[in-house]
């Protein structure tokens, strides 16, 4: 966590230093009866989190309950499962706290928790993992975007009897679809479905196994927008075990979020656990 950085927040009219940040973290641990880890990132979630996460867990040792304060727009399909399995090696109960955004692959982390703590502005999202483009290495592509491209091309071919259109327009577009990318897209889709089902059945929905296939299908296939906001009420309607953060608990969570948001806007920090 950020135990050695100091930053200013003139826009909010206060400064949060190391001691104040630790005070909020201590307050959150007291209110939740847990040890709290923080993952706050604007870059894609990937396996680079695993070693620093393990080092922090090893330093804490096995404890009854761990909460992960999570802000992430998603990332690689395999990483969330690894993170859940690693954290659960060190605790008997695992919760995820979402102050604002836990999207796509980050929503997968929530499925491996016993509960998700959400406030009035908190958002989960459809599980639409990202894969790296084989040529443009810094470009991460939502796999659903590739799926919709292929669906569009297929519908265009089937609905238009004009062979010249297919030859002149559609065929060049198809030729631009890299087979490696299509194969990885298909693998990522199947993997996201497999991981979601496994995590839900073992943890979040272990007491409601009849909901597992329904929620899995909804999160992996039921939303057209990569950024669709699943708020706490909709998350509850889906069947997820949601704890609604209110009063002091929410004030502490939101203060921590604003602090870390400002920290990332004033320094080039990268991902932190």
Automatic annotation (TrEMBL):
Signal peptide: none
InterPro entries (alphabetical): ClpP/crotonase-like_dom_sf (IPR029045), Pept_S49_ser-pept_pro (IPR002825)
GO cellular component: membrane
Lineage: Bacteria, Bacillati, Bacillota, Clostridia, Eubacteriales
Superkingdom of this protein's organism: Bacteria
SUPFAM superfamilies (UniProt xref): ClpP/crotonase
Name under which the protein is recorded: Peptidase
Pfam families in the record: SDH_protease
């Amino acid at each position: 966590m950020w135990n050695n950085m100091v930053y200013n927040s003139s826009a909010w009219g206060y400064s949060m230093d190391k001691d104040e940040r630790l005070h909020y973290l201590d307050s959150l641990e007291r209110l939740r009866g847990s040890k709290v880890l923080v993952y706050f990132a604007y870059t894609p979630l990937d396996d680079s989190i695993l070693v620093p996460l393990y080092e922090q867990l090893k330093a804490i040792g096995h404890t009854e309950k761990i909460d992960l304060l999570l802000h992430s727009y998603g990332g690689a399909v395999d990483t969330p499962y690894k993170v859940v399995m690693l954290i659960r090696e060190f605790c008997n109960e695992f919760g995820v706290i979402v102050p604002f955004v836990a999207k796509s692959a980050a929503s997968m982390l929530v499925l491996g928790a016993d509960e998700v703590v959400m406030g009035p502005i908190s958002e989960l999202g459809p599980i639409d993992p990202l894969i790296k483009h084989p040529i443009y290495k810094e470009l991460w592509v939502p796999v659903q975007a590739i799926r919709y491209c292929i669906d569009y091309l297929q519908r265009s071919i089937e609905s238009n009897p004009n062979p010249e259109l297919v030859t002149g327009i559609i065929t060049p577009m198809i030729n631009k679809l890299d087979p490696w990318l299509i194969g990885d897209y298909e693998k990522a889709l199947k993997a996201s479905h497999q991981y979601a089902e496994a995590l839900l059945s073992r943890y979040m929905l272990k007491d409601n196994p009849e909901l597992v296939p329904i929620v899995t299908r909804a999160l992996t296939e039921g939303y057209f927008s990569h950024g669709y906001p699943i708020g706490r009420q909709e998350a509850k309607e889906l069947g997820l075990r949601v704890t609604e953060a209110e009063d002091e608990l929410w004030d502490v969570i939101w203060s921590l979020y604003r602090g870390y948001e400002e920290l990332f806007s004033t320094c080039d920090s990268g991902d932190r656990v």
